[in-house]
Amino acid sequence: MPFNVPILLTWLRVALIPLVVGVFYLPELGLSRFEQGMASTLIFVVAAITDWFDGFLARRWDQTSAFGAFLDPVADKLMVTGALLVLVHLGRVHPVIAFVIIGREITISALREWMAQIGASKSVAVSSLGKIKTAAQMIAIPMLLYYDTVMGVIDTRLWGHILLIIAAVLTVWSMLYYLRKAWPLIKKMQ
Length: 190
What we know:
Layout: H1 5-25, H2 33-60, H3 66-89, H4 95-117, H5 128-146, E1 149-150, E2 154-155, H6 156-189
Antiparallel strand pairs: 1-2
Helix pairs in contact: 1-2, 1-3, 2-3, 2-5, 3-4, 3-5, 4-6, 5-6
């Protein structure tokens, strides 16, 4: 397993995931609901920044690796899944929306693994549609963790829900896109 700064940042993101979840479930912390939302939002945003930064550094310093390529999306999926489960428990996200997003992540991860095994991983490379979906999710989730107004102007509850619905629609759309690209190979394997 290679060890470098980009991989260290990815491991940091993995380590931050329990903190995003934990601030809501550790009564010993004595945080109000607002303080829990603020703390989890800040932790999530730091984790999201490491997601961008580790990829940037890996490319810039030519430190990309097969292990980093494996760990990065796993960390992303764990981060999103953990936050969505908290948001469902708090009643801030409908379970169907969380299921659609998490189900798509599992489906596409399995598809990518299978495509890599048959030597066709380029067929399901990340698309711009997937990147837009990820951006909508990564903005919506901290808004829904915060769940208040910012400076009395921005209602994060409203905008978080709107962006998460957009992310869910893009989730289905991007899943269909990837499945359509993989379909000729799936059909050939039958």
